[in-house]
Specification:
The protein is of the alpha+beta class. It is built from 7 helices and 11 strands. The chain has helices at residues 3-42, 46-59, 63-75, 79-92, 99-113, 230-254, 263-267, and strands spanning 117-123, 129-132, 135-139, 146-148, 151-158, 162-163, 165-171, 176-181, 184-185, 210-211, 214-215. The chain has a 4-stranded antiparallel beta sheet with strand order 3-2-5-7, with no helix packed on it. A 3-stranded mixed beta sheet has the order 4-1-8, with no helix packed on it. The protein has a two-stranded antiparallel ribbon with strand order 6-9. The longest helix has 40 residues, at 3-42. The N and C termini lie far apart (143 Å). 15% of the residues are buried. Residues 6-10, 210-217 and 243-279 have low confidence and may be disordered.
């Protein structure tokens, strides 16, 4: 055997002894708490006893301690939880209880069950959470009926993607009821389609200019300048004809043989100037 193997074996032995020592210490501490709790039960202090028993179980989780916890729970009126503790004690302590202790636990369980009723809850969908009076008791399908105190109880089934459903049942001590809850799948409403918006085409006359959908307005053309207007030159021509006619008339009078006409003709013909105004 090598030196390394010897050292490893010694280390494991020391670790096992240390673990046993810690286990013994925990067991002794739990045993002391059990004694304190039993003393409190003798003083009708079920609340204080329950606290001691729960501390003992957290230090040394022996199924035997569950029997003490069940008894304290009955003392504070929590019969449903007491029945669950007794059931766990019998289930988890196979071969650990003496015949007398097992018989005592079985009797205590029968007594507490006599004060309760059972409800067999089924749901049409697996995986739905079953809730009794606001407290979850497990997911469907449940492994066993649910123990309840006599009276009215609200049982619900909840599952994501489904509408929750519930039913109120009246529980009677010593009887078993059956309840089936149906959850319906929630229908997701699709968003309504938005109506399409179409723009009517804009007809643009040939030759016009448009920007976007706005057609440019046709602007009137500017009037021509005065010297391009036909009526100006027509009027000017008429005036010129009148001037020429007048001039000829006066010129004819100056050449007359009338003796009394010595006026303008004697000194030369007088030139009449007629300015034509701009219209």
């Amino acid at each position: 055997m090598t030196r390394a193997a010897v050292l490893l074996g010694a280390s494991l032995l020391l670790s096992a002894r240390a673990a046993r020592a810690d286990n013994v210490a925990a067991k002794e501490r739990a045993r002391a708490l059990l004694r304190e709790g039993n003393a409190l039960l003798g003083q009708d202090d079920a609340t204080g006893a329950l606290e001691k028993f729960q501390q003992a179980y957290s230090i040394y989780p022996s199924p035997k301690v569950l029997a003490n916890i069940g008894t304290a729970l009955r003392g504070v009126g929590r019969d449903v939880e007491a029945a669950a503790a007794y059931e766990r004690c019998l289930h988890e302590s196979a071969g650990m209880l003496t015949a007398d202790l097992r018989a005592a636990v079985e009797k205590a369980l029968a007594d507490v069950r006599g004060t309760l009723g059972r409800t067999d809850v089924t749901v049409n969908e697996a995986g739905a959470m079953v809730v009794v009076d606001g407290v979850s008791v497990g997911a469907s399908p449940l492994s066993a009926p649910v123990w309840m105190k006599p009276g009215a109880h609200r049982i619900e089934a909840r599952k994501g993607g489904f509408h929750p459903t519930s039913e109120t049942v009246e529980v009677v001590a010593g009887q078993t009821r059956s309840v089936r809850l149906l959850v319906a799948r929630a229908v997701q409403q699709s968003e309504p389609a938005r109506p399409s918006v179409s723009h009517a085409p804009v007809l643009v006359p040939t030759g016009s200019r448009a920007v976007g959908h706005d057609v440019a307005e046709k602007r009137p053309s500017a009037p021509p300048p005065w010297h391009r207007r036909w009526y100006v030159w027509a009027g000017a021509g008429a005036v010129a004809v009148a001037v020429v006619a007048t001039t000829l008339a006066f010129s004819g009078g100056g050449n007359s043989s009338d003796s009394g006409g010595a006026g303008a003709g004697s000194g030369g013909a007088a030139e009449d100037t007629l300015d034509v105004p701009y219209p």
